[in-house]
């Protein structure tokens, strides 16, 4: 992977992870680094799922692929937030 590809993955990971945080109501106790990593994984899994479903290459913006990615990022952020919430003292 070239340095440009790394920066692109970080940028898309931050965007997808941030959008995933926005669709989850309330405050999440998840670091931005974890959000970016969840976003990167969600972007890769969302693209793979869109390819399997046959909607990865459509004319214009791939709205279905983007919805899959953001949904997966939201699920990942929720899992991390619930996991960290279980460790917090009450």
UniProtKB/TrEMBL annotation:
Sequence intervals crossing the membrane: 6-24, 36-57, 63-81
Keywords linked to the UniProt accession: Membrane, Transmembrane, Transmembrane helix
Domain of life: Bacteria
Upper taxonomic lineage: Bacteria, Bacillati, Actinomycetota, Actinomycetes, Pseudonocardiales
Entry keyword Transmembrane: yes
UniProt protein name: GlsB/YeaQ/YmgE family stress response membrane protein
């Amino acid at each position: 992977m070239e340095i440009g590809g790394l920066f692109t993955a970080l940028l898309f990971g931050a965007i997808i992870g941030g959008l995933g945080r926005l669709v989850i109501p309330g405050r999440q106790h998840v670091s931005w680094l974890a959000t970016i990593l969840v976003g990167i994984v969600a972007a890769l899994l969302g693209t793979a799922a869109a390819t399997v479903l046959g909607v990865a290459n459509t004319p214009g913006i791939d709205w279905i692929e983007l919805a899959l990615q953001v949904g997966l990022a939201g699920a990942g952020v929720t899992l991390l937030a619930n996991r960290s919430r279980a460790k917090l003292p009450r």
